[in-house]
Structure formats: C-alpha cells, structure tokens
Amino acid sequence: MSDALSQPMESDAGHGDDDSQVSTPLLQLKSITKRFGGLAAVDNLSFSLHKGEILGVIGPNGAGKSTMVDLIGGATTPTSGTIFYQGHNVTGLSPHQRTQRGIARTFQLTKPFTGLDVRENVMVGALFGQRRLSCSQARRAADEVLERVHLVHKATFKGDQLTIADCKRLEIARALATDPQLLLLDEVMAGLTPVEVAQAVELIRQINKSGLTVLVIEHIVGAIASVSNRVLVLHHGRKIAEDEPAQVLSDPKVIEAYLGERYAQKHTQDSASGFSTAQE
Amino acid sequence: MAKGMKAQTSPTTQAPPGPKEGREWLWSLLLGLLILGLVATVPFVGNASDLHTWTLIVMFAVLAQSWNFIGGFAGYSAFGNVVFFGIGAYATGLVLLANQPFWLGLIAGALVAGFFALLLGLSVLRLRGHYFAVATLGIAEAMREFVTVRDVGGGGGGLISLPLPSLDSYIRFFYAFLGLSLLCLLITVFLTRSRFGYALVAIRESEQAAEALGIPTYWYKVGAFVLSAMPVAVAGGLYGYWATGFDPDTVFNVGISVEMVLLTFLGGAGTILGPLLGAIAFEYISFQFQASGFTFHNTLLGLSIVIVTVFLPQGILRIIQEFGRQPAAGERRAGRFAEGVRRVRRFIAANGI
Questions:
Q1: What's the pTM value of the predicted model, to 2 decimals?
Q2: Which of B213, B218, B219, B321 to mutate to test the interface with A (most CBs of A within 10 A)?
C-alpha cells in the first residue's frame, strides 16, 4: 500500500521537475553578446539556470565573468541577445528594477556604504529590494540576515572597519536582505584564507538550501567544484564547457585555457585535483 | 561544521566590543535646538547691528543646511545652487510688486524654484561627479545673464526696488530665517532616520551598489535636488524684501554657491549639525573682520577653502567626534593629539613649506 502510494508520488515529482525545466527556467540567456569597442567581452553566450540550482562559472582573468554578472544584474546592457527571467524579457530593465523582481548581486570589489554601520548597510537592502519594508521591520530583517551570515557580532561596526572576509559577508548579507530568488555571487571567495573559503562554501550551501538559486563566479576552482551542481567555463567571452564539475575539470579544453597547452598534454587524467591546488 | 563555526565566532567570547548603537541623531537634534534657542535670544540681548549680522548668519546657515541635502547626503557637488536663491528673490519680488501678500511671494518662490530644480535635475543628474558640478556651475551664470538682459525686475539691468518693510519687522525677518533653519534641521534629522535618507547616503557611498540593492537612484537624486532648492528659494525671497531690493549680481552671485559648499564642508558634510555649526563659526568670524574695518572676507574665504580641503576634509564635527570617542585599548588621548601634530608636520615637510 505504502509502495503503491509512494510510487506515483515519486514519478509525479519527477514529472513536475521535468516540466518546470522544460517550460520556464528561472534565468535564461539567449545568444548574449557584449562588445566594448572591437572587443567582445561576452561572445554569443547562451545558458539556462533552473530554480534551486547552484551554477558555478569559472574562467581565467578577462574571460568575461564579471561582465556576465553586470549583464544579468543590469549594470550594462548587451550589444545583442536577450535575457529572460521567470519567463519575462528583462533585457531592458535597469539594475534596481531587476533587484525589485528578485535578482540580487554582489560586487567583486566590495562596495560597503562606509558612512553607515553594518546593520544599516543590510537595512538598505531590506528597505528597497523586493520587500520594501518599513524602517523598523527592515532593522529586524537585517538582524535576521546578519545572524544567517554570522556577522551579527559586528552589526555596529562601520562599513570601513571590516576585514576582507567580513566585507564579502556584508555584500552577501545586503543582497540577501533584498529577498531575492536569484543570487549572483561575483568572486566572494577571492582574497580569503582557506578556512574562510570553507566557511563561504558552507554559507552558499545554506543559502541554496533555503530556496535560493545561486550563480557563483569564482577563481578558486576547487571551491566552486565542491559547491556547484553544474559548472560553466568561459574563455575569451565564449562558453567552452558546461557540465557537472568533475567532467568539466577533466576537460582538456578547460585545462588548456587555464594552464596552457603543455600542461594540458602532460596532465590528462588526475588533473582535477592538481588543477585545483595550483589555483589556490 | 556550521555549528562549530557559529560557536567559534560567538559574540560573547571572541568578538571585540563594537561601537555602541548610534543615538547620535537624538543628541544632534537636542544640541541643534539648543543652538537655535541661543541664537533666538539675539534680538533681546543685542543691538540693531547684532540683529543685522545674525540675520545674515542664520540665512547662510539655511543655505548650507539646504545644500547639505544634495551635497552632503547624496554626495552630488552642486555648484550652482545660488540660482534657486535668485529665483526665490525674483519670484517674491515680482509678487510684491504686483501688490500681492508677502507670504504668497515666498510660496511662489519655493514652488517655482522646486519646479526649476525638477527640470534641471532631470537633465543634469544623469551626469556624475565633476561633470555634474561643472554643469550646475553654468546654470546660475546663465540665469543671471538672462535676468539682466531681459530686465526682469523692471528697474534697469534686472534691478528690483521694493517698498521698505516697517521698522519692527526686522525682528520678524530674523525669526523667519530662524524658523526656516529649524525646519531644515528637522528635515535633516528625518533624513538620517528615513528610507529617503538611507537611499541618499547609499547613493553617496556607492551609486552602483545602491542601484543593485533596488534603489531607483535617479529619482532619489532628483528628489534631493528639489528638496535642496526650496528652502534656498524661501531664503532668497526673505532676503530680497529684507534688503528692500536687489540686482541680479547680488542674488545670482556665484560666491554664494561657493559659500554654501564651504560652510557645509567646514562643519561636516552629511551630518545633522555640520552645516549649522560651519555657518555660525565661519560667518561670525567673517563679520567680526568686516566690523573691524578690514575687507578681509574674501581672503578668509580663500584661506578657509585651502585649510578645509587639506586638514579637515570631514569637517569640524568629525574632529569633535574623534575626541569624544572611546579610546581603543592601549591608546591615550594625549597620544592621539601627538599623532595629529606628527601628521601636520609630515604634511608640511612633504609640501616643502
């Protein structure tokens, strides 16, 4: 009886999953190109991101990772191509309109509001963003978020009194306070110690578990491989690989892009581990 | 793992005691009320000349407090806000010349200036940084030229002559300026505690981050610009009647724009009390010089600009706060003073003075 009950439920769930994947991905980029003068920072890039996923994006310096975040966040507009979010075309929307629809981002170079303390920094996200809470509600919401990212003990510090790791946490906290469905993390682990990287990975997992879809951009390949469901590799603005982490990291094209041709020829098989330590 | 981390960073065991939660706004408000209360006694304790001086001091306080909204909070260096002073003066003057009541003139001035700020803001607030400063600088000059050439006042070259207000009304002018200053103080306190104020500070600190957190930065900047225009226009209207007439060179004088900026930075831009303190300190000293026979005003202005930009980029208030804060562990107050002296010496040595 219980078998009979559980059977259709399982298939139902599977079906539902399939259905949502086929019909509307949370985020979809369709042949996005961004040129700066003659240079294509992002070149004909297409991919989809589904609800609940963690997608990692890696690539060497200048691969177009941050430009991609700017394009999705709305800080720059694409030269050509379309961005769909929850099935709607958001290509022409400004950054604040996208945030109000549930796309939040962090900045690679952290931009804390130095004149405000940490709690007020996070409050700004809750005051605006998707929820537009009142001041007193925003204060409470800020404390909750600070608790989540383990920054509550520094709530009264000014924005310029923080360590790099705390600045990155503050970036995440502010973005979370806007109550997003999609979180874009632009190199939140860059410049952190190995212990702090481990904490950040754990934090990203928790955020994802609470129902957010996450797009992680990172240099540290080992960390991103451990946290992502899927990894996308950019090189010269083009997508050169998109697969599960293990497959991507053993892909000769990817190794070549990162470490050069000769390294790729020498290390064919156990490259994934050597690769990640070399990056860290 | 997460639990282990949390225990490690538990606030009671590891974290150093952070600064106390800010009650600064409340103290600033009380102190501001106290200062304005003291200034309010001038008509009782001083003579006619004191009243004249303090009327102008309070007027400059209003100008600085208004500039603080766009320059201090939103961080946009508007260098042409005198244009609103002139617009207010002319609007009020024309209403008076049409034999309409004075208060109607003030309201008309505020509305016209607000509308002008809206139109101006919609175009120039698309610019950032220096470009914005330069664009606003041109506006006031253009307006002065326009008013002069079209002879808007009808007295030749844009001059307006107004009927003498009755003698006892000088006290009323003084209190009108003081009330305006009080209003600006209350608005400023409101700004530090409200959604609007947080948006402006976020824009000042990082416009990109502000946008990314969902703030429609453009509209908030326009709002701040309009807010900073209206009290200035009322001050202009009051000034015009108080001075029983004016010409375009007086009320569109770029020097007034510069003084708005200077007074705000001298006291502390983006703070509640800064512009008020800066205006009172600077203008009082300046009037003392004038009274003693030197025409020292412009020298003082120039010197202050140099001193403020080099030594006090964050204003008088910041220095007071620095001395008021709890010393960090192992830090002595005397040590802090010595460090300040060392810094000045280093600066002098580095610049070969």
A1: 0.84
A2: B213
